Every structure is written in C-alpha cells, then in structure tokens.
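User: I'm writing a short report section on ligand binding and want a predicted complex to refer to. Could you take this sequence and heme C and write out the structure as tokens? A short remark afterwards would be nice.
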Amino acid sequence: MLNKKPWLLGMALVCLSVGAQAQSQPQDMKRGMELMQQQMMLMTPELAQKAQALSPDIKKFLMRVALRHERRSDTLTLVQVMQEIMAEHHMIGTAIATDNGPLAADAARRLALHRLPRGGMLPYLPIEKVTTESLSVLPSMEVAVEGNAQKLAEAADRGDMAAAAHHYGEMTAGCVACHMHFRGQPGASAYTPRLKQ
Ligand code: HEC
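Assistant: Sure. The structure tokens for the complex follow:
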C-alpha cells in the first residue's frame, strides 16, 4: 500500500517528526496519521499530489488541526461548517450585547473548536492556493480566529464584556483576512457561471 501511495509514506515521516518535536504520545501520532490518511483518501489524484508536495511544517499544522478538532463530519462541506461558525458568531454578538457571559463563553469555545468538513479544508480551496506559500498564512489565521475566540471566552467567564467585545472585533478581522486570502466570489455557487460577470 505504501508503494502505491507515496504520500502515505510522506505522512508517516511527518508524523514521526511531529512526535519527536512535540513529544506527542504515540497514540496521538497514530491517530493523527489515520486522520490525514482518511482526508487524503477522499482527494482527487491532482489534489493529493499538491497536498503531498506541501512543506513538512504545513503538513504538521494540518495534522494538529485534524487532531485538535474532535468534531469531524463525513458529510458536511466547508460552506456548511462556515454557516455553523457564522451561527456561533451571531450568538456571541447577541451574548455580548446582552451582557450574557456564559452564553458568549460557550459559543466562543464551540467556534474555536469548530467542526471539520468532509475531507478537511484543502478540497474546498482553489487548487492554485494549495501551495506551501499560500497555506503559510494558516497559523496566523488560527491565532486571529481561534486564539481570540478562546480569549473572548476567558473574558466572558470573568464577566468582562468590554474585553470580550474587543476580542470579538479581532476575531472577526481574522474571518475577513482568511476570506480575502482564500475565498473567491462570496456566496458563489455552482450556478453562478450562468451569469455574465
Ligand atoms: C482558514 C480560512 C477561513 C477562516 C479563518 C474563516 N473562513 Fe469563512 N470561508 C473560508 C472559505 C475558503 C470559504 C468558501 C468555501 C467554499 O466556497 O467552499 C468560506 C466561506 C464562509 C461562509 C459561506 C458564505 C460565503 O460567503 O462564502 C461564511 C458564512 C463564512 N465563511 C463565515 C466565517 C466566519 C464568521 C469566520 C470567522 C469566525 C470565518 N468564516 C473564518 C475560509 C475561512
């Protein structure tokens, strides 16, 4: 099997180095590798080849994302996951505006540990964005969105809604930055090619 799928061997090597650096538990490494294999099995050969060519750092990052986010869907697409994230975002806004710390904290933690779509993120990006250079912005997007969501939750736990509102703004700036980088026409669907541009 490894002979037929060189990327599996590549992932195995990446997992070994992740384990060495982060001193992960062997079971985490095994699980991380399984998750990456599951994602790559769903990719077209063209995408799998581009994923295989990514730098070890990006592969490690993607593996850690897959490991940390424990809700992984076999059916939902990235747009559907984003709609769920949007709903959490609305809920946080409502909670901040109504001074409801527990509601803000719970929704922010769900947002930070959002569901993952079928096949991971790569299948939903424009294929020309699946490069080490283009994906190298992902860790900073994660800090902006998930990092600020966690800080927001901590502020809301303390009842400091002014600080929560500040993190809400910074988190939202992360959504905007990622969309500017990766998303094409907002709201585009398979039907829009029927419109003149
Ligand atoms: C890692 C990059 C990234 C981050 C961070 C991100 N998004 Fe997205 N988002 C995307 C991509 C890519 C799409 C388009 C997916 C597609 O068309 O298949 C998208 C689509 C969406 C959509 C679907 C409708 C549309 O306009 O295309 C919504 C709603 C959305 N995002 C909300 C959010 C919110 C709210 C946040 C922040 C809390 C956020 N996103 C953070 C990458 C990101």
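A remark for your report: The mean pLDDT is 89. Residues 161-182 form the longest helix (22 residues).
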